[in-house]
Amino acid sequence: MTDTGKLKKIATQVRRDILRMVFEARSWHPGGPLGATELLTALYFRVLKHDPRNFTMEGEGEDLFFLSNGHLSAGWYSVLARSGYFSTEELSTFRRIDSRLQGHPATEEGLPGVRVASGSLGQGLSVACGAALAKKLNGDDRLIYCLMGDGEQQEGQVWEAAMFAAGRKIDNLIGIIDYNGQQIDGAVNDVMPLGDLKAKWEAFGWRVLEMEGNNMEAVLDGLEQARSLCMKEEPVMILMHTEMGYGVDFMMGTHEWHGKPPNEEQFERAISNFEETLGDY
Amino acid sequence: MKAYTYKEKKDTRSGFGSGLLELGHKNPDVVGLCADLTGSLKMNDFQDEFPDRFFQIGIAEANMMGVAAGLATGGKIPYTGTFANFSTGRVYDQIRQSIAYSHKNVKICASHAGITLGEDGATHQILEDIGMMRMLPNMTVIVPCDYNQTRAATLAIADHRGPVYLRFGRPKVPNFTAPDQDFIIGKAVVMNQGSDVSIFATGHLVWEAVEAGQALASKGISAEIINIHTIKPLDENQVIQSVRKTACAVTAEEHQVYGGLGDAISQTVARHQPVPVELVGVNDRFGESGKPDELMKKFGLSSDNIVDAALRAIGRKHA
Question: I need a labelling partner for A23 at 20 to 30 A (CA). Which of A118, B200, B268, B278 fits?
């Protein structure tokens, strides 16, 4: 088991990876993955039971993670590579021609770790429900995790899946909402208010937890608590409070870095926030 | 010329239901999903026999496609069931991203396709679905012609790894193909050989084409009748071989002439063996309420229309 100090070091390196990938690609979303870095690191280096070097689509006997908000790809690719699904050198191909690291995650090029394409929002939780049902049919007691964005909650399909998971008592499923309050056009509450998100998920029949998402200890505790609530005939949702662009002073507190790369000067300033802990790719 | 007869009329959707039930016994990985149309899709028998492998989704087709993709990820072979309209246009993006692009082994089973859905009218009579599904990379598109063939196709697609769109219909139609037929995906079936005109038909129009062939024979015209049950991948070799012999073609489908069988055949012919092609199909309009046979006449999808099209095609050969 990776100790918490080590997890924090990994998270620091993941943030460097995200900034370098987005800067080198001259495009993409740095804000989202920087905010979800603790979660992705905790999952891939502590929480998930998985076998990165022997990836199979079915993942029998493994916990499976689905990234519904596919624009967090830079962060996901970093933890996939650094946990052993593929070489970290491949991170330098992100968003380039002939790369397996497509802008949005895909299975088409056979990238290990990815089980379904995502990016067109609102679809991941449905897929996660199906994967959870398959686990039950297969007598496999591992869990399914699914990360969504908060802006993504505006998609109707999310609520179809919400109804379904509760109605069918899919209790080997942990949903996580990256609740950073920002989407491309501005604050979520300005673009389309979500209202009382906790009450909404509870009303749909989910067990809802809240968690501080940019604190490694809090993330580990929250995930542990969520796991302890599984297999009790209710799906579990974590509202994960994060800061978009976390760790980069000028990227926090704004929606501006949702879908924009830093220029060279901004990149230098941003990356100086994070020391190289595991070696850049 | 081979004569085709039938003992009874049966609906293709019941062929699907029967095939699915048999598959349930044969293949433990097959699971069924339905969006509140279990009776219409004839999935009740599967549901009753295999309750643990059947998922009632409710009226939430987008979720159904995603759940199917997830079940396929876990090694299952999901068969989703709803009307063709809700199996395609309503959930196009879900199919595109979570199923087709993601190579998921999902069988999208679509009933009540086309105008023969009847009295419900145009909201439910989809005539664009073949085109939508044909355009998706990785997607196989199958439109069987009668009960027996739909049953055979339902069984066959379980052994094909990859997404499939299986289209069938509501009304009872002649059941004229063999009950024990070998269904080979992508292999056109030559119903009758001929030398004057090739008639490529799919779905409910195959029977109409067979009847048109008999009418043409009485006029001294030898029509080659080919059942294109798999529209993608199209049996291009068979199409080319046939038009090389006949030098003209007719296509017949219960679908818009844009995007469907007519387009597929026209593309193949234009690329490999240019000959006159006449298209029998719906011409850029929506359906409407009515009895299936009334609608087929009104929309020009009967054997008479195929005969007329064949005569036009033959007339254009030396024009």
Answer: A118
CA separation, residue A112 to residues A12, A48, A106 (Å): 23, 16, 10
Tokens 């580990």 correspond to A220
Q: What is the pLDDT of residues B235-269, one digit of tens each?
A: 999 999 999 999 999 999 999 999 999 999 999 99
CB-based contact, A162 to chain B, within 8 Å: no
Write out A201-248 in H/E/C secondary structure: HHHCCCEEEEEECCCHHHHHHHHHHHHHCCCCCCCEEEEEECCCCCCC
B115 pLDDT more than 80: yes
Query: Which DSSP helix (H) or strand (E) runs through B164?
Result: strand B164-167
Catalytic status, residue B236: no
**Of B61, B208, B224, B278, which one is the catalytic site residue?**
B61
Determine whether the interchain pair B67/A120 forms a contact, defined as Cβ–Cβ distance below 8 Å: no
- Range with lowest mean pLDDT among A19-33, A232-246, B49-63, B243-257: A19-33
- Flag if A157 and B67 touch (Cβ within 8 Å): no
pLDDT at A258 > cutoff 90: no
Give me the pLDDT at residue B222, please: 98
**Residue A71 half-sphere exposure, CB side, CA atoms within 13 Å?**
23
Between A and B, how many CB-CB pairs are < 8 A? 119
Cross-chain Cβ contact B73/A119 below 8 Å = no
Measured distance CA(B260)–CA(B278) in Å, rounded: 13
pLDDT at A183: 94
Give the closest residue to B66 by CA, choosing from B35, B96, B98, B101.
B98
Over residues B116-161, the pLDDT tens digits come to 999 999 999 999 999 999 999 999 999 999 999 999 999 999 999 9
What local confidence, expressed as pLDDT, does residue B106 receive? 98
Q: Which residues make Cβ contacts (< 8 Å) with residue A160, sequence separation at least 6?
A: A126, B60, B62, B63
Q: Collect all residues of chain B within an 8 Å Cβ-Cβ radius of residue A117.
A: 97-98, 101-102
Q: Output the six-digit token pair for A208.
A: 């809802």
Chain A residue whose CA is closest to B53: A137
Q: Which of A205-214, A249-258, B275-284 has the lowest mean pLDDT?
A: A249-258
Nearest CA in chain A to B67: A130
Shortest Cα distance, chain A CAs vs residue B57, angstroms: 7
CB distance from A97 to chain B under 8 Å? no
* Chain B residues in contact with A157 (beta carbon < 8 A): 62-63, 66, 94
Is the separation of the CB atoms in B74 and B27 below 8 Å? no
